[in-house]
Amino acid sequence: MPVDHKRINGPEDTVPYSLYTKTNKQSLTEQYEEIRKTGQRTDSRAFSEHRKIFVRTGAVSQAKGSAYIELDNTKVIVSVFDPREIPNRPDYSLKGELYCEFKFAPFSCHKRRLHVQDAEEKQHSAIMKRALESTVCLHEFPNFQVDVYATVLENDGSCLSAAITAAGLALAHAGVPMYDIITSVTMGIQRDTFFVDPTVTEQNICLYPRPSESDTEHGIVVLSKLHTHDQVSQFYQFGNVSLDKLNESISILDETCRELVPIVQKYLVKHVVKNLQRNT
Amino acid sequence: MSKNIQIRLASQRINTSVPGNQRYPKIFTPGQVITAQNEFMRGHGTYEENGELKASVAGVREQVNNLISIRPLKSRYNGEIGDVVVGRITEVQQKRWKVDTNSRLDSALLLSSVNLPGGELRRRSVEDEHMMRQFLQEGDLISAEVQNVYSDGSLSLHTRSLRYGKLGQGVLVKVFPSLIKRSKTHFHNLPVGASIILGNNGLIWICTSINNSEESVGGFVQNLEEVVPRQERETICRIRNCILALTQSKMMLYDTSILYAYEESLKYSVAELLIPEAMLDIAILTQQRLTMLENA
Amino acid sequence: MALCDAEKTFVLHGVQDNFRIDGRELDDYRPMELETDVVSHAFGSARLRLANTDVLVAVKIELDVPFPESPQNGKIEFFVDCSANATPEFEGRGGEDLAIAISNTLTTAYSSSLAFDSRKLCLLNGKKCWKLYVDILILECGGNLFDAVSIAVKAALWNTRIPFVKNVNIDGNNIDLDVSDDLCLCERLDIENAPVMVTVCKIGDKCIVDPNAAEEHCSMGSVVVAVSGTKISTIYQTGTGSLHPATLTESLQLGFRVAIRLNEALSKVLSRIRPDEEAGFLK
What we know:
- The structure holds 3 protein chains of 3 kinds.
- In chain A, the strands form 2 sheets. In chain A, strands 1, 2, 3, 4, 5 and 6 form a 6-stranded mixed sheet that branches. A 4-stranded antiparallel sheet of chain A has the order 8-7-9-10, sandwiched between helices.
- Chain A has helices at about 25-40, 120-135, 160-175, 200-205, 245-280, and strands at about 55, 65-70, 75-80, 85, 95-105, 145-155, 180-190, 195, 220-225, 230-240.
- Chain A is globular.
- Chain A has a single domain (about 45-280), classed as Ribosomal Protein S5, domain 2 (2-Layer Sandwich), CATH 3.30.230.
- The longest helix of chain A is centred in the C-terminal third of the chain and has 37 residues, at about 245-280.
- Chain A is built from 5 helices and 10 strands.
- Chain B is an alpha+beta fold.
- In chain B, the strands form 4 sheets. A 5-stranded mixed barrel of chain B has the order 9-10-11-13-12.
- Chain C is α+β, with helices and mostly antiparallel strands.
- Chain C is built from 5 helices and 14 strands.
- The radius of gyration of chain C is 20 Å and the shape is elongated.
- Chains in contact: A-C, B-C.
- Chains B and C meet through β1, β15 and α3 of B and α1, β1 and α5 of C.
- β10 (about 230-240) of chain A pairs antiparallel with β14 of chain C.
- Chain A: Belongs to the RNase PH family.
- Chain A: InterPro entries: ExoRNase_PH_dom1, ExoRNase_PH_dom2_sf, PNPase/RNase_PH_dom_sf, Ribosomal_Su5_D2-typ_SF, RNase_PH.
- Chain A: It is found in: Cytoplasm; Nucleus.
- Chain A: Keywords: Cytoplasm, Exosome, Nucleus, RNA-binding, rRNA processing.
């Protein structure tokens, strides 16, 4: 792997100290058992309850549009830049293109992230592009490319869906023509528990199957929705889930996505009103 | 085969060649000496070295009087004046369309060599030039005739007959140009209820029967609303799969062979014609019937 | 390849009529051809041909140290190479996006220990494990790549023979592996639950599987469903365009149903494979 020598890379084979502390993998099972027993999540939310979200636009003043989103400890900043001609393309394309870059800040996760995009970040970029493509009116800017950059400042779970929601807001803030407002929610599944908008610990719980006698289902689902058109613009899942459970999760996520729409709408309206007041 | 997914092992692959009834001609490979006598003239696919005539492509020898040329076994289409071709518009330019006809260079269809709506003897006005994309746009399929072959090998086409023009709903099949047998007509209305255009360039168009009474071809009108009825659709798809079966066994394509293959295929369902054994079966049966026809 | 509107209409109406242009029904698959053990230098290999799509998969094994986060697990890595042999579009970095999408989908599909148990690849807890390099080479690209790749990968893993380790000696920090010299003595992987992917393509308001090139052209977007055993291990969307939630569930159902059939067909054919039956690429 190419190493950037201008940056501090740290030794290659370091081990996070947290492996030696009490909260290691074994205890994830215990944590899950405890959550199951008490029927309450660690932050005393209901299982189907989304975290409180905080959004604002214009976080990056030099970008054409930008948005900042906070789901408690998950913090993502997204900026959108002016359309520019698609680079390195000889032929003319009737439709515009989106370029998405999803990046974890080096300090955002438990383990330090490198500056080069890794496979997970590339995958997330592709999903983000897929989600946003069907909401932007691409035919309105032929042969142009709009760049969307998302940086996760702090990862406490559901950062991909947070980035997608924020990117939709940032695109709207930038005045890019869009069909609809896009909202996105993540869900973690472990056996018969659905964690809507999971935190990082809850995500880790759902990442691996817990030793159990019978039903060992686990996984993470991300769904992005265009609200007024009632269209799923992106759906991504991994793990090991039965079809029935997946269908159930789709309907729950659908509902949660709908709940987020007014928040995003309200903020956009607020932004416009504020600008109008400033101008008069 | 429906509801069953076929995965076969490569060791059970079948040999798709059909025993022919004629002697195989000698095949020359590049660099091979064709003749050392120098009274012959150098044709396509050959070159001269040290007084010897050598092949530059792999293929069979063709001789016309003193002219020796090597016809490659597999090549792109080499156009000849009067050929019927099926092509796809790739570009709309000033006063002409660029057409992909599976030949080495793009072919051109001049605005002056098409029949515009509203009669044959109309002058091409400036409006027509602006309207060109409305007649034919990128991606559209046309049938046409080769009007002229330029010195670099590129073709100029014309559609100045009611038989030619924009193609409607149907299926395009691409085969090697050398598999298309040259015949008097390349437009066939098969009695089974479909018509085919065997383009000399290896593109075959299959569509519903064309009624000669209503002149649907030759214009620029497509009916996208019309749904092809199930039975005709089945016929079209069956012909498509039959042509692919014959192609797989490298058999010549013309109206009789396609019709025979169609008749032999009736014992299979259309989807079954994708199975290699069925395809071979049809090719062998067709070959037998053709031999019988020849001997009769 | 571009299609004109009339051709698209013909394809579309055919799909609506449950009679596609090659005569198949919506959930029919084209016949495929599979061959295992084609690369002699690899520990396991397979080649799959589905109409014009041709995929070659080879598995290489190396010794490695497990990740500190998961000391009991071995490693498996997928690498897809879209060579310019397939189509000139892949020249340079042209095929990179597609390659990343396929390899990432494979990685996530194999990530769950219920789909592929990487604990069996561990030799010594936290110290030594096998690492499987699954190299996927796209030789010819005629559409429906995800499905073809997943079947070929599964067959290659089925074919993989891991050297048998007789003994592990620990001497201070030195670890000595005693690998059996006998080539016949080897372990095979358990691939019963290895995921099989099915791409469900949406055309008009119907969903089809195993699209050919013309049908892929008419489609607005597709959903890749990876099924391991009777559970869904990964879902990934490709292409543009969005789906109605009802269509999404419908396509998941279709993909799931077909994947189970595909898996059955694959295990049936794998059980039929005899050693030393070679065909090679061109016969």
